[in-house]
Design goal:
Blueprint lengths: L9 H17 L3 H22 L1 E2 L9 E2 L3 H6 L3 H32 L6 H9 L6 H12 L6 H8 L7 H4 L1 H26 L3 H9 L4 H28 L4 H7 L10 H10 L4 H35 L1
Antiparallel strand pairs: 1-2
């Protein structure tokens, strides 16, 4: 028998044609990819470029490179360090409070009762209100000592009309932001509760387990990935909390409510120091990445384990 031998380059040719076809199929995605790179990476590169310079718009000195001096000076900037601490305290408080309040609301709305659909709609409404509009409403309609609901309530119980924004500025930011993001936590945690197997709950009830025991031993482990995902997403957004601080307290007395986002704004549009503002913005980005990337890995690992189970 005689065997027909193919040319040695035929396999290579087919491989090259396959690669060419793959790239040809991906060609329509190229404009979108270029657009995403320009929108996301170009501002990052420009900000990094500005952060290496001493550039103040109201100064007569010409911009010049100081390399990493802006980053080094951040370690001795007391206001920046206070902004970092305020960001950590407010973010942690808001995340914990939002998860707790959202979990309680989800537990209540997970039961059958008349008007549950309307109650669910009203419960998630705060999440869809514009942050600026919500801050303006709370500033005048809730926190105002003369016309606000809290001022009237404290006056009725004999405490007097309290100026919440001036006396408890950080608390006002935490309450307002928790009010908005607890609705977001409600959405995720309610979905997690509804995905809990009904046969497991029925078996626990037949065995005589109390509701508290069922929740602590069965429901809570089931909700763990949902709780951690909720905390991660809320933390990612609350780190950039700006509207509530700008409208309610303007950073607060002695920078008591100034977080990293608002301090970058002050440096850029109040002091007009583009170099320092860019450096502080880069540090804020790195801190946010240092917080969210490990949390994201933990959450993704939990969901992978749940998928394999």
């Amino acid at each position: 028998m005689t065997s027909i031998s193919l040319p040695s380059g035929s396999a290579t040719t087919r491989a090259r044609r396959g690669v060419s076809k793959v790239w040809w199929d991906r060609l329509p995605l190229l404009p979108a990819l270029v657009f995403v790179i320009l929108v996301t990476q170009l501002p990052f590169v420009i900000t990094l470029y500005y952060s290496l310079q001493r550039w103040n718009l109201v100064s007569t000195n010409a911009p010049r490179f100081v390399w990493f001096r802006n980053f080094i000076n951040a370690a001795s900037d007391q206001v920046f360090l206070k902004a970092v601490m305020n960001t950590a305290v407010m973010t942690f408080s808001i995340v914990v409070a939002s998860v707790v309040v959202g979990g309680l609301l989800a537990a209540g709305l997970n039961r059958e009762f008349r008007g549950r659909t309307i109650a669910r709609t009203l419960a998630i409404t705060p999440f869809f209100i514009m942050p600026v509009a919500a801050a303006l409403f709370w500033k005048t309609g809730v926190y105002d000592p003369t016309f606000g609901i809290l001022g009237w309530a404290t006056d009725e119980i004999g405490i007097g009309r309290i100026n919440w924004i001036s006396q408890y500025p950080k608390v006002t930011i935490i309450i307002l932001t928790t009010w908005q993001w607890s609705a977001f936590a409600l959405l995720i945690l309610l979905a997690g509760m509804q995905s809990f197997p009904t046969e497991v709950a029925e078996a626990a009830e037949v065995d005589g387990a109390s509701r508290f025991y069922t929740f602590r031993r069965l429901m809570l482990p089931h909700l763990r990935p949902f709780i951690e995902l909720t905390g991660l997403l809320i933390a990612m957004y609350v780190l950039e909390n700006f509207a509530a601080i700008a409208i309610l307290t303007n950073g607060g007395p002695a920078y008591s409510t100034t977080n990293l986002s608002y301090y970058v704004y002050l440096e850029a549009f109040s002091s007009f120091d583009l170099g320092r503002a860019s450096a502080f913005g880069m540090i804020s980005l790195w801190l946010a990445m240092a917080l969210t990337i490990p949390m994201l890995r933990v959450v993704s690992g939990i969901f992978k384990q749940g998928g394999r189970a």
